[in-house]
Amino acid sequence: MDRQQEFVLRTLEERDIRFVRLWFTDVIGTLKSVAIAPAELEGAFGEGIGFDGSAIEGLSRVSESDMLLQPEPSTFQVLPWRTTDEHQGTARIFCDILTPDGQPARSDPRFVLKRALDKAAQAGYTFYTHPEIEFYLFKGPLERGATPEPVDYVGYFDNHPGSTTTDFRRTAISTLESMGISVEFSHHEGGPGQNEIDLRYADALTTADNIMTFRTVLKEVARDQGVYASFMPKPLAGEPGSGMHTHLSLFDGDANAFYEAGAEYQLSRTGRRFIAGVLRHAAEITAVTNQFVNSYKRLWAGGEAPSYICWGHNNRSALVRVPMYKPSKGQSVRVEYRALDSAANPYLAFALLLSAGLKGIEEGYELPDGAEDDVWSLTDAERRSMGIEPLPQSLEHAISVMERSELVAETLGEGVFDYFLRNKRQEWADYRSQVTPFELQRYLPLL
């Protein structure tokens, strides 16, 4: 037993933890959980906990149903909303999924990301991400299929002392930080009842785990306050959608591989080729970064939602943006990908963004000229003359592009790739028959 495992077992005893929740995700990004007694955790570290993998979306076939959950001790955290004077202590720990012979399950989204990170490590890189997560707060209780009512009608950066959203963000951030998840910013967003909380940058695997925890924490805090938190990409017609703009960077040891002193925007050749890779493969990965029918209501609603494949500096209508840099802080040079939904599976999305960027570096892709005008304000002819292509305009379109992508198939692996295509084709077929009520009934109570 290693020191991290010993620390976890000692903490269980010292904090009188009575339940340990083993967390993992299915292919779509839904959090799954099974509770075990603390006495079972030591055995789980050594041998895993068996479960029926065929009952989990996309994980395995019925003929290969036996799977194991392998707890990762470094992800152990006590759940503060389940540990009070009235409740016995509860903790959570993320798990890797293994086959019965102890090999990583290739359909485990966490393993998909680990595999992409290993490829980056072989090239000498560490991949860091920093998400800006938008979400809506609605008055509860929320009934399936009913039109949601926002908790307020204030706007972007509005200071509204004593409001529901102010109190909510304060409680949510305190809960996140008590679990070791650092928050950088928080504020009211542009839509009624819409908010944003930005997590501090971390390596991509830690960030993906933090995003899954973030969603759970916000749902729990909202429930305690009698409201409902939704990560649905476009819950309200005529109002801004909720995205997860994500800042990306590669480090070579302690050096930022995207930084080059004296270069335009201090962006290195490696950084430019990374962006070129993301742009070239953007349409192929959109079915994963924007995986719901409702996602395309956000992408094609105008405003600051990115609809076209281009990059820029201060241009927030571009798909990829190079944020304003600080000349004295070369380590802060990064790129921002703006299409991601708050409801995306972060493990699969980060794996694909990394793979696309690495492909650009490996193949020496040339970065096209940047777009500094509002891309939405340009005519179709102007966009064509600049070589700017649109993102897929529907889930059906995104699926058809993804289906032909070698990069996506290789990154996700055969099982995840095939399942994702089948699942999303069925979702599109369901939507075609039910239209808008389908979105509220299918997505809102889940996201």
UniProtKB/TrEMBL annotation:
One of its GO terms (molecular function) is metal ion binding. PROSITE patterns: GLNA_ATP, GS_BETA_GRASP, GS_CATALYTIC. InterPro entries: Gln_synt_N, Gln_synt_N_sf, Gln_synth/guanido_kin_cat_dom, Gln_synth_cat_dom, Gln_synth_gly_rich_site. Keywords: ATP-binding, Ligase, Magnesium, Metal-binding, Nucleotide-binding. GO terms for biological process: glutamine biosynthetic process. It comes from the Bacteria. Its cofactor is Mg(2+). Residues 109-447 form the GS catalytic domain. Residues 15-102 form the GS beta-grasp domain. Pfam families: Gln-synt_C (PF00120), Gln-synt_N (PF03951). It is an enzyme of class 6 (ligase). Its EC number is 6.3.1.2. SMART domains: Gln-synt_C. Belongs to the glutamine synthetase family. This is Glutamine synthetase. The lineage of its organism: Bacteria, Bacillati, Actinomycetota, Actinomycetes, Kineosporiales.
